[in-house]
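Standup notes
- DV: blocked on the single-chain target, sequence here:
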Amino acid sequence: MAWFLGKGMNSGCNTEALEEHRSAHGFRAIADVYGKDSLATPVERDERLLKVKAEARDKHTLFLLGQLHYEQGRYFEALEVFDAIKDHDPRALFQLAIMYYDGLGTAMDLPRAVDYMKSVFQWNVSETGSIRYTALYNIGRAYLEGYGVPQSSTEAESHWLLAADNGNPNASVKAQSSLGMFYSRRETKDLERAFFWHSEACGNGSLESQAALGIMYLYGLGIHQDPKSAVECLKEASERGNVYAQAHLVAYYYHRKLYTNTAALAQRIISYNDIAAIARVTDCLPEYIIKGMAIALFYYGRCLHLGKGVLQSKDEARHYFTKAAQLNPEVCQDLQMDIILGKM
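- DV (later): unblocked, structure below
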């Protein structure tokens, strides 16, 4: 069962996640310039130095000051700084859009957030750099979900195509991966295009697309069936923390009668208890983390029910079947049908 088809070319999978550089690197650089002999904490020293330079109306330093407030959770102060320089610094305008979108330091204002993102996109290209692509990705997401703008899959697609920039590794990798997901939806299904965009995103470091490619190779979705490439992608994505890939490895092991491997990996997955934390660390969609956990729970229950790879216990099996159904009823219905049809 290809659960990849749900609601929801630098080909190959031997890639490493692209590192994201936080603005804190800039703060450390400023502190190094002015010396390290202060008795103040690094954050206090950085803030003082930034404020001194900010008095000279240095646009870049003012932005760093606002970012320092933002990272400390002092959102009202960050908002004031960003608002003061939003007409001169696209980074400040971008951060304001994020704050209005999430209601940080101010009331949530989705239309304003989208308008600010559109202004970032329309800014002089040489000044916006990569955040222009990120703004385009966010605008597409807003259109897909109908947040701050009328819902429109067409607008979402067009903005994501701009953000993806033909697979440019310096563009929005998130948009490239989202296009792969977009073309896998029932409403907009085009599996060959889905495979293309997941391949581009995977080649540019996307963990979510690496898992998706593994599933597409495994079931022959948008590409010829290739179990070897499927397992390679799924194993690498699993090692990088993708729960959905781990769950599909559970299924792969089970159907090849590797029951000890099935049970061991399933046990590892069902021990996860903080979906939000996993999503933050891996940058993967919570929806697919939940699906992965439901798949693992169901297969572990099946192993317990039949005594395969673990000691047989039908009472424990019922417990795990129930937990799987609570997490994702649709996944469990599909797997239950596989049992009825003799596929499991």
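- Follow-up: The mean pLDDT is 86.
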